[in-house]
Amino acid sequence: MMEGFAYEANPDEYIVACMVGPAVQDDFVGWPSHITVIPWFEVEKDDLASAAVQRVAMVTSQFPVLVGDQDYFGPRRNVPVMTVESSELYDVHEMLIGELENVDADMPFRSIMHERFRPHITKKRDRVLEPGEAVMVTKLYLVAAPKKQSRLTRHKRIVLAAELHI
After folding, report:
1. Short-list 21, 47, 31, CA closest to 139
2. 74 vs 33, 38, 80, 122, CA distance in Å?
3. Among the four 13, 123, 124, 130, which has the fewest Cβ within 10 Å?
């Protein structure tokens, strides 16, 4: 797929995340505490993205991530995050990229993928995290949202919550 190509027929874009706060509703606006594993991307249909995420989940065991120090991300470095460490998370990131490339996903945020992937938990009020705390990753979430709305205020829906093996 040519980078920058948009799937005009599909009104949604997607993200793959691990939720680390309390259980999330199937539909939500504000993000709970989460780790973005694959940033926003486009694909022709929900089921292509779902199948790609499910294939990775089927071969991945649950794993811990170790919470690191607080940092700030974003263009103005005003988004509070907690860094995380986990070799398994890097492996899942790479496997997802491969599976999404196989379904011709358009991934415009490649500048923060592969070796530039900096896993972190975006801090929200739903969970207080301390450096040194271990958080278990038990599911991969495929989340969809309308492309034509602001990423901060738009309605999001969970397309898939894929269980990892125990």
Report:
1. 21
2. 16, 16, 9, 11
3. 130
89-111 CB burial, b ≥16 within 10 A, e <16: beebbebbbebbeebebbbeeee
Q: What number is the average pLDDT over the span 18-29? A: 85
Domain assignment present for residue 5? The answer is no
Q: Residue 155 in contact with residue 29, Cβ under 8 Å?
A: yes
Residue 1: inside a domain? no
Kindly indicate the confidence band of residue 75, based on its pLDDT and cuts at 50, 70 and 90: confident
pLDDT value of residue 139: 96
Number of domains in the chain: 1
User: Left, alpha or beta for 63 (phi > 0: left; psi -120 to 50: alpha)?
Assistant: beta
